[in-house]
Each structure stands twice: as structure tokens, then as C-alpha cells.
Amino acid sequence: MALTLEQVRHVATLARLALTPEEEQRFTTQLSAVLDAVAQLQALDVEAVEPTSHATLADSLLREDATRPSLPPEKSLANAPAKSGTSFAVPKIIE
Amino acid sequence: MQLTDLTMLELAAKLAAGAVSSEEATRACLERIRQVDPKVRAFLRVDEEGALAAARASDARRKAGSPASALDGVPVGLKDIFLTEGVETTAGSRILEGFVPPYDATVVRLLKEAGLPLVGKLNMDEFAMGSSNESSAYFPSHNPWDLARTPGGSSGGSAAAVAAREVFGALGTDTGGSIRQPAALTNTVGLKPTYGRVSRFGVIAFASSLDQPGPMTRTVADAAALLQLIARHDPQDATSAAVEAPDYSADLEGGVRGLRLGVPREYFTEGMDPEVEASVREALREYERLGATLVDVSLPHTKYALATYYLIAPAEASSNLARYDGIRYGQRAKDARGLKELYALTRERGFGPEVKRRIMLGTYALSAGYYDAYYLRAQKVRTLIREDFTKAFQQVDAVLSPTSPVPAFKLGEKVDDPLSMYLMDVFTLPCNLAGLPGLSVPCGFTKAGLPVGLQILGRPFDEARLLRIARAYEREHDFFLRPAPLQGWPERQASVTPPCP
Questions:
Q1: How does strand B213-217 pair with strand B189-192?
Q2: Cβ–Cβ contact B53 with A under 8 A
Q3: Structural domain tally of chain A?
Q4: Domain containing residue B98
């Protein structure tokens, strides 16, 4: 299945990737080739088949709702590209 | 004979006997790294200080008569996907350059508690996406059996370091073959445990329903001993299985007499290297001589596994990698105007081409209007692939096949052809889709001296039997004794040349 350049741009926006024009071109070709290759799945009749999200999920994933210590703020912020007090700093989002 | 030629268990015996100290063993690794890593380039960084401190602490415990585990003092390496408190962890990506984790992955904590000095962080394809180590943002690692060739991927640095005897063992991760394929290409043993057997907490996520950490070693017995330390239930990983681990070494020499070993006809098809096929066929005959019965089995949906994987894994990856947004850690595009541009520029500059390709593919497969046709359908086919194995395991105890369809290929050979690179995983990825344990054990060499691996797949939580089957073959050949030549040189040099570790 051939992807259009418009579709690639739309997907890049969804994925928050500022692709260069060269990348947009390259991905249009390469992703179309991959989609052609995976198109073989369309031939299978899977109407009555249940999907598998995890192959071997344990019976119960629930645990007791007990509090546990978490990372202190200074450790959580240690890798922050920008911070302000005990918060992560981001560019202004409301003018 | 150098100290670094010992297996993990041989070294452990010498440590227990007081014949050698952990500090000597660790210094021997560091010296070996200085000698050979400029050629192999397995390490992204070496933690000399941390490793030596751990070694001295181990020696003190030995002296006090209270070793922390059977492998206390045995130095190992870690794929750079495992979070290590205080030691930079990048997953082979620029976007995490300079990232120093505030905590240890559960498996790292377990190894530290068991007393193993952690020598350093090993190279990998960026975010484990690749089969050759060439998508590492830093440099490609080289195969110790022919330096012009890839050690495989994505745990290629781990495999190369073990094969070059820079460390006694290593941990890797396997999402579609990333432990087994590099093991096969480097004459080492690689075990991908059952999904849920080993904790993923603190392991940088690629595809959460497929990822699984596991041991990479020179021998089967070493793999059993290393798995023993990390096969634990972990409350911090909701998918961790509350299944008690058996003693993986107890029945290692039990042999294969009376076992039924399946040979899936769909795994012996066109496209396989004839020398790889010949080695694997010879191994199958060997198993018959050792008393096993070979059974022809069919896994009819095998041909759909690659397509299924290349929808599910990128879909999960596109979601997992959304966290790299330049806000909380990692690199940030500081010149961006506004938040949206900050996200998009940070990710554009921080991710390499293979990662972007998979994020794009996964985002598309999950996007409105395509979810049912791609992602949901792939999940349904995943059920069919899993059922193939369930049926086969009603007839047989394990399934045998080649690990990789070809021996190590040349660096640069496949970088511009993503689809041909994806084909490298054709025999390994069905195991991940089905959540099964899988192991690669050395099964000989091509005429050019390149290693070949035999893959053994088993029922969920049947790692002990896989190890026993692998050991039965290893015992007849001892391929692990053969040292890698560390010769040959790539025709196409890496453009980035970082300083030697």
C-alpha cells in the first residue's frame, strides 16, 4: 500500500517529529514498502480469533494498595534539562 | 591461559578456593578491555572505579567466609539498556546522552546483591531496534570472529564483549531475537527467558509485551548460573510471573535420551545459508545419536510472524518512546519556540533513522482508521502463532531450528535496506510473540570460520530443560573453548570515533 507524502506528514505530526523534507520523502518510500510487506496479514480470516496483547499474563495483576517510598524530588529532577524549584520547567504555553 | 579465558563457573571455583581474588579477575577484564576493545568496540563506557570497589567488597566477603552468591566476585557487563544508578545509561541513543539514572533496574540490583562487579555498559542498536549494532548512535561494534562483520544485534556489544573475553558474562535483552541472534553470530550462549520470568523494571522499554532480559555467556552452565540470580518475581513489574524458579543447574547433565525434539518444517525453507543449514542438520543428527527422537512438526503461521512483529513491536515502541520529550530527562532542543516545537525538535534531533522509522510505522498502525486493519489484526494473528506452538508442544518437548538464517554479515551491507535487515529475525521473533523461552547454543563454524547457532525453543517456564538440551550438545563439541581471532578490519569505517574507554 502506497502512503502519500500528506499521510507521512500527518503521522509525523502525531508522533511529534519535525522531519526534514528529505526524511519525509525517504519515509514515504520506505514505509510504503513495509506496509506492502505486512499486507499479507489481510489474507487471513481472523474474524473469530481473539487478540493477544500479552502472551503469558499472570492470573491476577492486582496487588495490595499499599504506599511505598518513591524518588525524592531532588533525584527526580536530577536529569531535568531545565527546572524551577521542585518543578520541571517548560516554555510558556499560554501567551 | 589468561584469567579472562576462564568461564564464569571456573572463575567462581577459583574465587571460592582462594586461588584468585575478584580484584585480580576484575583488573584482568579491565586490561583485556584496554587491549582489545579499540578493535571490538563493545563498550560504550567502562566503570573501572565501581567495578573495582565491588570486587574489593567481594574479596572481603570471601575472606570473611560469607560470599553473597555462587557467582560473588565474577565480573560481568550490562547492555546499556539497564538503568544503573549513578552510571550514564543511553540505550545507544543521542536523546539519552548524559542521562544518569537515579535508581537501578531490578536485575542490576540483583546482580549487585549477588556480589558481581559490573564492569561497564555495552553497545546496542538504538533502543534495541536493529540486528547489527549499526543503529547505535555512537559507533558499531565489531564481531571478534571477523572484525569486518557485525556481532549481530541488538545486544551486539554484550555478545562481542563475551566472545572477546572482555567480561565473563553479560546481560542482554531480547524483543525479537536480540539476545539469541548476536549469540549465534559470536559463538556464545544466549538465553531469552519466558516472558515474565525476569523483571523488566528499570529496563528501558522497546516493546513491552515482547521485551525480556536474559544471560549471555560462553557456556550453557554459565547461562544457568546467571539466570539463577535474576529469575525472580518482582512486584515492581506488573507482568513479572509469580512462579518459583527451579535450580537451573541441577539437571544440566541429564542428557536428551527419551526426549522428543520437534523440527518445524517451516523453518527450513529458502533463503537459508547452505552452511548454516548443514551445521544445524548435523546438530539434529547428533541429538538422534544422543538418544533423542526427532519429530517433524508444523508451525503453519510462521510465515506471518515477521509482518505481525513489525506491526506490534513498532506500535508498542511508538507509545513507549513518547516519553522522550525533552522535559524530564535526556536532551532538549533549547532553541525551540513553544512547547510543541520543543517536543518535535528534541525528538527529531535525538532519535536516529531506524527509531524514527519505527515510531512512524507504529504511530500509523495505531492511528484512527488504521488501528483495526493493522494493530488489532496483528494481535489476532499473534494468537494464531501462539496456538501453533501450543499444539506443537503437545507432541514434543522442545523445537529446534537455526537461530539466524545467515552467519555474521559485513558491517554496512544491510544498513540501507530495512526490510532485508528485518529478515534477520525471521526464526527468532515467533518465540517473543508466543512469550516462550528460547536459547541459542553454538553449533559449529562455516568454512570461513564464522560461528553458527542452534536455536532451542521450549514451553513457558521450561528454561531448565532448554539448558539441559543445549548442554547435551555442547558437551560433545566444546566449541566455547575456541578463542575468537580478533582479526580482519572493516572496509567501511564508522564515521564517529569516540575515545577509547
A1: antiparallel
A2: no
A3: 1
A4: 3-259+467-481
Q: What ipTM describes this predicted complex? A: 0.95
Q: How many domains does chain B have?
A: 1
Condensed to tens digits (0 to 9), the pLDDT of residues B290-314 reads 999 999 999 999 999 999 999 999 9
Q: In Å, how far is A37's CA from the nearest CA of chain B?
A: 7
> Closest residue of A to B312, CA-based?
A53
Contact A40 B307 (CB under 8 A): yes
CATH number of the domain that residue B225 is part of: 3.90.1300.10
Nearest CA in chain B to A43: B304
Q: Is residue A16 part of a domain?
A: yes
The answer to whether position B185 is within a domain reads: yes
Q: Is pTM, for the whole model, over 0.80? A: yes
CA distances in angstroms from A24 to A9, A36, B344, B408, listed in the order given: 7, 18, 14, 32
Shortest distance, CA A2 to any CA of chain B (angstroms): 13
**Distance between CA atoms of B299 and B390, rounded to whole angstroms?**
10
Name which of B104, B194, B188 is nearest B152 in CA terms.
Answer: B188
Per DSSP (E only), the strands in chain A are: 83-84, 87-88
Residue-wise burial string across B319-334, b where 16 or more C-beta atoms lie within 10 A, e elsewhere: bbbeebbbbebbbbbe
H-helix or E-strand spanning residue B461: none
Residue B427 lies in a domain: no
Of B178, B249, B279, B318, the catalytic one is B178
Cβ under 8 Å to A: B residues 55-94: none
Question: d(Cα B27, Cα A40) in Å, to the nearest integer?
Answer: 53
Which structural domain range is residue A26 located in?
A: 5-43
Is residue B184 in some structural domain? yes
A55 chain-B contacts, CB cut-off 8 A: 195, 209, 382, 386, 433-436
* Shortest alpha-carbon distance between residue A90 and chain B (Å): 7
Q: A65 lies in a domain?
A: no
Which cell is B75 given?
Answer: 565480573
The answer to whether position A49 is within a domain reads: no
Q: Could A61 and B238 be called an inter-chain contact, meaning their C-beta atoms sit closer than 8 Å?
A: yes
Which pLDDT band, with edges at 50, 70 and 90, does B496 fall under? very low
B154: annotated active-site residue: yes
Q: Which of B93, B132, B154, B404 is catalytic?
A: B154
Q: Which backbone phi and psi does B444 adopt, to 5 degrees?
A: 115, -170
How many Å apart are CA B446 and CA B143, to the nearest integer?
A: 15
Q: Is residue A90 one of the residues assigned to a domain?
A: no
- Residue B451 pairs in a beta bridge with B445
Give the separation between CA B355 and CA A19, rounded to whole angstroms.
Answer: 13
| Residue pLDDT, tens place only, A28-68 | 999 999 999 999 999 999 999 999 988 876 555 677 888 98
CB-CB under 8 Å, B342 with A90: yes
Q: How far is B85 from chain A (nearest CA, A)?
A: 11
8 A C-beta contact, residue B40 and residue B98: no
Q: Read off the CATH number of the domain in which A10 is found.
A: 1.10.20.60
Q: What residues in B contact A79, CB-CB < 8 Å?
A: 98-100, 102, 328-330
Instruction: Give the C-alpha separation, A16 to B500, whole Å.
Output: 35
B178 given a catalytic annotation = yes
